[in-house]
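Audit log entry. Action: structure prediction of a protein-small molecule complex. Ligand: fe (ii) ion. The ligand was supplied as SMILES and no pocket hint was given, so placement is left entirely to the predictor. Protonation state taken as written. Sequence taken verbatim from the request; no trimming, no tag removal. Recorded inputs:
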Amino acid sequence: MARIISTPGSESDGFTDQMSVPKAIGNIMIRPTRNTLSENIRTQSVDLLNKHLAAVIDLQSQAKQAHWNVQGPNFIAIHNLFDTVSGEAGNYADLIAERTRGLGGIAEGTIHLAVRRSFLVPYGLDISDEQEHVCGISAALAAFGQSVREASDQSADFGDTSTADLFTEISRGIDHQLWLVESHAEPGYITPHRLSRFRS
Ligand SMILES: [Fe+2]
């Protein structure tokens, strides 16, 4: 017996073009999709994803700031490392934004929104010494990594294990970048006092 495959707009799955129009749930725009996660779960995931999209765009930019302005005897190694960190943050932004789209949300990834929403501490424009940059980027990676771990637990709790898995993947990548950056710190340089500058 031939299988009937539904196509968008066909009567067999009840999905019409009109249903693909996004609607507002609170302040989050969400469109219907055949994804079987409930609208309530998808809305919570989109909210969490966009929060981290803003922060990871900030992280990407902070690492570029360090890449451009670093000075010191290990210039080439650290200059290149910060460029790698920025590139990885850009990859995570892409993963987060496209997961948002897959759940029927709108990826809110403009610089304008990142400035308003990022939970990272603003990066100091007066930093030039390579060890201070290592301290600053370490602090930003650690803060973002902490929040991503919490987001993974949260999304698993409200029922979106795939988003939880994405956050876990990003968390693992951030931990790796943090290891690379911290490995460039002079022994004893990163102290609670020095880190306090980069904490909110
Ligand atoms: Fe460059």
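Audit: result stored. The two ends are 64 Å apart (CA to CA). Residues 1-11 have pLDDT under 50 and may be disordered.
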